[in-house]
Amino acid sequence: MQRRVRIAASVGLHARPAALFAQAAAAHTESVRIAKVVDGVAGEPVDAASVLGVMGLGAHHGEEVELTCADQNSLDELAALLEQDLDKTPA
User: Fold this and answer.
1) 48: closest CA among 88, 72, 17?
2) For 24-65, how does the pLDDT look when each residue is reduced to its tens digit (9 = 90+)?
3) Which residues form the signal peptide (predicted)?
4) Which of 3, 21, 32, 58 is most buried as measured by Cβ atoms within 10 A of its Cβ?
């Protein structure tokens, strides 16, 4: 299953937001992948549980990413997390 989400974190997926997201992704038993979307096309996906992989996407505030996961509930939970400003909101 796939879902596209806009990054709400004011600093994008950098440092704290990337770490919080990767930690949440790692807590799921299913594999979760994340890819940055540019001009409507998803790039190469990375392991969402990898802080360095998530930061390496270079996803900024307002940009879109595509999440891929076999479990709909996990997908919904992680998408909701990205829709928050993780740099300000306690996760």
Assistant:
1) 17
2) 999 999 999 999 999 999 999 999 999 999 999 999 999 999
3) 1-24
4) 21
- Architecture of the domain defined by 2-83: 2-Layer Sandwich (3.30)
The alpha carbons of the chain give a radius of gyration, in whole angstroms, of 11
pLDDT band per the 50, 70, 90 thresholds, residue 90: low
Place of tokens 């930690």: 23
Q: Which of 14, 28, 60, 61 is catalytic?
A: 14
Q: Specify the 3-state DSSP secondary structure of 78.
A: helix
**Residue 14 is a catalytic residue:** yes
- What are the DSSP E strand ranges found in 27-81? 32-38, 41-42, 46-47, 64-69
Chain-centre distance of CA 45, in angstroms?
Answer: 11
